[in-house]
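Figure 3 (text version): structure tokens given as input.
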């Protein structure tokens, strides 16, 4: 009887141990995200299960360490991802730039949109996110994850959240920390990934790192990277059509302007010469409510002016143009200062530059 009793007790103890282990704790992956701020070999030595590497920003910046950082992830047999930092220019152009840059890795790495307010001319424009992720999916068949702070999840449209995994950033504090077993508010937002510090300290790297958890296994990670488990070949970038030159608008067609940071309708009217302001059509229906990245349309009968009304002329940026390409090596800096461009590498089709 005692032997039977001992066996029963041992079996019950084993079953109890099995049921008290949290399933997600066994599955969750620990990881880092890196950019050009870190060394090109950070992913060669740091301790992680996955690494997400910055690829691009806007339509003019590529992380110079991207290839070397990604190579080490693959050579070590770890899970790989790439992110695009939104510049807030033309969403389709930025998606194309991102897909073209990471083309060799599509189907093998998770793709991510990094949605933050810094250097993002379309911050607050939820439709920008929608256009970007839809374009990436159309080109690759992959829905990218969307990264943002927990405080700004409201900016992500419902249809995007239904298709794309969330990568949520929320810190209890930013004190130095290693990998945590359960970060503050972990899983609260139904997120696929959670970033809980930018001051992580882990083995294999002598410096601060962003630390994250992916709430799943490597197999689930691969489902985000390649949902169909097939060879993915991105569709080629469509050849951009020449931007038509402004002509006298008609009531039916109108004259379009892409709103930039700091714009008002009266300011747009002043630099285009298209008055009155009441002839402008805006998405909100209220000419006092516009935001960067929107397209506003003039429906009046005036003809667009070639200058700003102060002796300066306007250049409308076309696809593929750069500031130095438009204004030359000796002129681009003056134009960047004149237009208050925080990053001269970030210009986008439809943007109007005074010169």
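Below: residues designed for each position.
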């Amino acid at each position: 009887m005692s032997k039977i009793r001992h066996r029963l007790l041992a079996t019950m103890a084993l079953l109890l141990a099995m049921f008290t282990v949290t399933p997600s704790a066994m599955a969750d992956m620990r990881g880092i995200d890196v950019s050009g701020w870190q060394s090109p070999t950070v992913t060669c030595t740091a301790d992680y299960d996955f690494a997400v590497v910055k690829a691009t920003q806007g339509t003019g910046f590529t992380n110079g360490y991207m290839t070397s950082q990604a190579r080490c992830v693959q050579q070590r047999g770890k899970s790989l991802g790439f992110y695009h930092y939104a510049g807030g220019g033309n969403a389709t152009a930025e998606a194309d730039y991102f897909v073209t840059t990471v083309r060799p890795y599509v189907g093998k790495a998770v793709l991510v949109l990094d949605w933050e307010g810094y250097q993002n001319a379309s911050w607050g424009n939820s439709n920008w996110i929608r256009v970007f992720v839809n374009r990436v999916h159309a080109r690759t068949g992959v829905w990218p994850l969307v990264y943002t702070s927990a405080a700004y999840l409201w900016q992500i449209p419902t249809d995007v959240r239904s298709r794309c995994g969330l990568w949520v950033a929320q810190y209890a504090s930013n004190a130095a920390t290693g990998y945590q077993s359960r970060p503050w508010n972990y899983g609260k937002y139904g997120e696929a990934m959670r970033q809980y510090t930018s001051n992580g300290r882990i083995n294999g790297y002598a410096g601060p790192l962003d630390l994250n958890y992916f709430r799943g296994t490597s197999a689930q990670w691969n489902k985000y990277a390649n949902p169909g488990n097939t060879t993915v070949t991105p569709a080629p970038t469509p050849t951009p059509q020449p931007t038509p030159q402004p002509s006298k608008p008609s009531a039916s067609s109108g004259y379009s302007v892409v709103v930039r940071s700091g714009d008002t309708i009266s300011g747009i009217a002043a630099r285009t010469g298209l008055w009155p302001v009441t002839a402008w059509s805006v998405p909100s229906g209220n000419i006092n409510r516009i935001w960067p990245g929107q397209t506003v349309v003039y429906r009046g009968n005036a003809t667009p002016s070639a200058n700003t009304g102060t002796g300066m002329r306007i250049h409308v940026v076309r696809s593929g143009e750069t500031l130095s390409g438009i204004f030359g090596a000796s002129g681009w800096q003056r134009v960047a200062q004149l237009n208050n461009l925080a990053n001269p590498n970030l210009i986008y089709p439809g943007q109007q530059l005074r010169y």
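The first strand starts at residue 29 and ends at 34.
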